[in-house]
Amino acid sequence: LKFYSTFAMLRLPRPLARVVSGHVRTCVAVRAQACQLAAPSASVAQKAAPQSQTETAVPEQKPAVECKWCKSATANADRVCDACAWVASRTAPGELSPFKMLGCAECMHLKLEKAEAEYRRLQNVLHPDRFARAPEEEQLLAQKHSAKVNEAIAIVRCPLRRAIELCKLHGVDPLAEEQRIQDMELMMESMEIAEELEEADADGASAVLKRVNERIGQHVQKFAKARDADDWDTAVQHVQALQLFTRLAEQAAGHASHYA
What we know:
This protein is mostly helical. Helix content is 68%, strand content 0%. The radius of gyration is 41 Å and the shape is globular.
């Protein structure tokens, strides 16, 4: 009708108007088809979208270890769950070594800062206030676990106790009665240091303490080397040396503080 009125206003002859009208309708149809091809339908766009997302998708990460009690995916199942304190109370203390309990490697040279941080975290998790409304049995188990954590940090902090624990984990008791000190030079050295301490003043005791700590460091290195070589006879000898020098270090520290 629009085309007809336009042609009527122009007063074109009817045959010519029909030709012009047909030509215009053909052009409009062709233009519409071209627009449709240039702009795909919504259904086509929806089907194409998932394909582009798949190509740029980030690989899915593996799930964390699951706590067997609270089923949390952020659990330290081998120690104490981060999400619930009840794992600690339901796990019998003594199942883990002091090293694993504090999340550090079973070795002489470890990161004490990491062990100290884990110790503080566990003490917070095992605080008695968290178990105030728990059954009495669980409260007692939590107390035992807390005591075990305190013992673990004491072992990890002390080179002598650390070495003893590593020997025991291998099935060797370095302080058994049959394990006697056979190094006579070591015995003489320790006796001389003890005599020196008896006559030393504060400065002398501090100097002795420094020298003894150096000897402790040397035997820590030697013990670690013997352990890595699976030479447990030599490792036991260095544990015995560590026992002597640790005792002398305690005496020297006490002697120095007495004069302070």
